[in-house]
Amino acid sequence: MQDFSPEDIINVGKNEFKRYSNYAPWIILILFVIILISGSIYSIKTEEVGVAQRFGKYITTTNPGLHFKLPLGIDKVTPVKKERVFKEEFGFRTLRPGIQTEYSSQKYLDESLMLTGDLNTLDVRWIVQFRVNDPVKVLFNTRDPIDNVRDVSEVIMRRLVGNYLVDEALTTSREEISDLAQVEMQKILNKYETGIRVVTVKLLDVNPPEPVQPAFNEVNEAKQEKERMINQAWENYNKIIPKAKGEAEKTIREAEGYALDKVNRAKGEADRFLAMLAEYKKAPEVTKNRLYLETMMEVLPKAKNKYIIDPSQSSILPLLKLDSKTD
């Protein structure tokens, strides 16, 4: 086995270094080119856009796909999720969304407790959905867009809930509060040029605080019972009153018809009598005989037995066999 002295080892190292030192510039050049190429190509995802800066100044916005930029820190590209809809929750937190959504058991009363217009306290929980409308404004005009959305939403919601009575906020005015909150939020965000567009604001749950929930439930039950009794009374009213009005109207119409019939009949009889009187004055005997004959024609068909007697006879008893049976 051959022994090497330290000087031999150093000489061998020097020789190897001299042999590879001829390739060092090429290796450095290749590494530099690789760095330039890798720093010049960047990719933007489908739901994003790229905000490009050159020496810190905004130059353009790029769409999804592969793009080139100046390397070595000259150009800087920041991806912004423009197509994604973000959601912020107030008064609660979702731990795991899905078919069986899990929510945090922690209470966020500093966000959800609010005063109504009649100085009652409500636990209000809502969500805000928003998206990036202008990536340049989001990057350069705001320091923390999410905090801005949360602060503006909470201020608007507290002000709106304070304009309504507790019963209105609990029941009839929830949709109205949501719509107004969305409009007011958008106005403020536009005023400060945040580049954010509010998609929707929705009240999910509005309840009284837990310590007073039993009292609120009793009040609501009493109000529901009151409404039920009022509706039942109106139902009975709508059944009885229209029927009575209909019967009264029917009676009035029948009386009016009866009166009109009697009046028309009386007028007809009077006109008939006057016409007959005029004819009688023209020919009394003829009219008298005509009236007699007309009366007999009306009466005789109603008679069962008819007897014709001689005016000269003083009695008809000898001629009649009353209650006799004929063979």
Could you give a short description of this structure?
By secondary structure, the protein is of the alpha+beta class.
3D architecture notes:
With 327 residues, the chain is an alpha+beta fold. Among the domains are: 17-81, no CATH class; 86-208, Tetrahydropterin Synthase, Chain A (2-Layer Sandwich), CATH 3.30.479. It is 52% helix and 20% strand. It is built from nine helices and eleven strands. The protein has helices spanning 6-21, 24-40, 109-112, 135-141, 145-161, 166-170, 174-191, 213-282, 284-299; strands at 41-44, 48-54, 57-62, 65-68, 75-81, 86-90, 94-96, 102-103, 113-115, 121-132, 196-207. The strands form four sheets. Strands 6, 9, 10 and 11 form a four-stranded antiparallel sheet that branches. The protein has a three-stranded antiparallel sheet with strand order 3-2-5, with no helix packed on it. Strands 1-4 form a two-stranded antiparallel sheet. A hairpin with a 2-residue loop joins strand 2 (48-54) and strand 3. Helix 5 packs across helix 7 (174-191). The longest helix has 70 residues, at 213-282. The termini are far apart. It is a single-pass membrane protein. It holds the Pfam family Band_7. The chain crosses the membrane at residues 23-44.
SSE topology sketch:
Elements: H1 6-21, H2 24-40, E1 41-44, E2 48-54, E3 57-62, E4 65-68, E5 75-81, E6 86-90, E7 94-96, E8 102-103, H3 109-112, E9 113-115, E10 121-132, H4 135-141, H5 145-161, H6 166-170, H7 174-191, E11 196-207, H8 213-282, H9 284-299
Antiparallel strand pairs: 1-4, 2-3, 2-5, 6-10, 7-8, 9-10, 10-11
